Amino acid sequence: MPGASLQNQLEEIASAAAAIATAPAARLAELKVELLGRKAGRLTEVLRGLPALDPAERREVGARANQIKQDIETAIERRERQLAQEAVRAVTMDGTMPARAVWRGALHPVTQVIDEICEIFREIGFTRITGPEVETEEYNFTKLNIPLDHPAADAHDTFYLSPGVLLRTHTSPMQARTMERYPPPIRVLVPGLAYRRDPFDPSHSPAFEQIEGLAVDEGISFVDFKAAIDFFVKRFFAPDTAVRFRPSYFPFVEPGAEVDIQCQVCKGSGCSTCKRTGFLEIMGAGMVHPAVFERCDLDSERYTGYAFGMGPARIAMLRYGIPDMRLLFQGDMRFLGQFVE
Prior knowledge:
Number of domains: 2
Mean pLDDT: 87
CATH architecture of the largest domain: 2-Layer Sandwich
Order of helices and strands: HHHHHEEHEEHEEHEEEHEHH
Strand order of the largest sheet: 1-5-6-10-9-8-7
Largest sheet: 7 strands, mixed
Radius of gyration: 38 Å
Number of strands: 10
Strand content: 15-25%
CATH superfamily of the largest domain: Bira Bifunctional Protein, Domain 2
Shape: elongated
Structural class: alpha+beta
Number of helices: 11
CATH topology of the largest domain: BirA Bifunctional Protein, domain 2
Low-confidence stretches: none
Distance between the termini: 85 Å
């Protein structure tokens, strides 16, 4: 009977499958094709003979064939796992090889610089505050005495989100927000991100950290401003670091000044880093413009103050001799690992 013949073949296949349990990798691959191959596998040949059987025999032989197929597939999977585990155990370890370095988490160098700057100014009465990164034209420009037809307010320089709403181009809007919210005396430091349409190159980034400083009270003079900046420079860099104030123009201060420090590379003798001048610029600053006080409803006849803005990324580059600002943004652990304390 055809059914009996197929049953005998199935039992022979089941017997042959017993070799799977101890087969090496190469023999296992051969058994897989020999028993289950789609074209010439022994089980496939049996299944091709099912249509010639009567319905009762077809059900009986078909059920046995499916059971044997499942048993073979399970045995193959089990043996493959065993061979994989044996291969792992067979790998010998070389105890003389150096271990992989363990990466330790740490604050980013720019964050370290920001924290240190804030701590230095805290010693002379400054409080650290934060403000919104999405600003209005009123606070980013108008209240700071910057007209909206100024180049800084142009769409080529500023990221506008909608008419009158933008990503702040500096942390200076917190000058106005602070003076509107708190009565003098005021001494605040505002670290945070600012955004400008600058190219991403060795000295610029479209998103960068900035620190704004503001002091407002009765009787504050340019002497107080110079003393505060000189205190910061000598604490942050070195006690013998020379500081230079150059007249400059900023719409929200009058008089305004660029603050330069003695080049930390050549110590003032002149090199390529400082372009042979012996000095490097670290911030723009000056006495708060009376128009800014008036726009914030403060009496400019009664109150005076000073403001400054610095880029901690640039200051980190000066301190650590970093040649390219892009290194601070790339997340390269080989570079950042130098600043782990």
